[in-house]
Amino acid sequence: MALKAAQTQVAGQTTRVVSLPLRPAHTSRRPVLVRAEEKKAEAPQAEAPKPEAPKPEAPQADAKTAPPPTPSTTSSSSDDEMSKKAEEFLANAQQKWDETPNSEKPAAIAIIIASVVAQVAIGASVDAVNKIPLLNLFLETIGFAVTSVYAYRYATDPAEREGVQASIDSFTKAVTGGKKV
Known about the structure:
single chain; mainly alpha; two-stranded antiparallel ribbon; 6 helices; 2 strands; 8% strand; CURT1; Cyanobacterial aminoacyl-tRNA synthetase CAAD domain-containing protein; CAAD_dom
């Protein structure tokens, strides 16, 4: 069975219409595939694009009728602020690196590399678990239930609240070195 193709030309553009003949019921229903060589042979030659007419230039606007500022000009202050914060962070990191003894620098580099590798591995495993249809929903339900039980227990029992407050305070003191935040 051959494909019947017709070409029509409307407003300078060539349109190709392809119609497929009806198949008998005993043949397969797979779509007809046309080889790339046949498509290239049947493809009409593309016409060269016509040059567009030049657009007239707009008159120059004076200072009183200047357009409102664009988002790129208004966001420059936030860009400056972000660059200042980035420079401060890098300066602080450089200072901390210089304060680190040379004997501890390889260990610090190893810890940083291990942290990055662990983050990538954790992200990949979480993505893999999220792709399992029922396991994802099951784990979310368990997490919600456990969080609800602990929140209810700590919110309703005064002794538990005091215990949580004491553990938070001791952790804060250990991290900050006893300084009040």
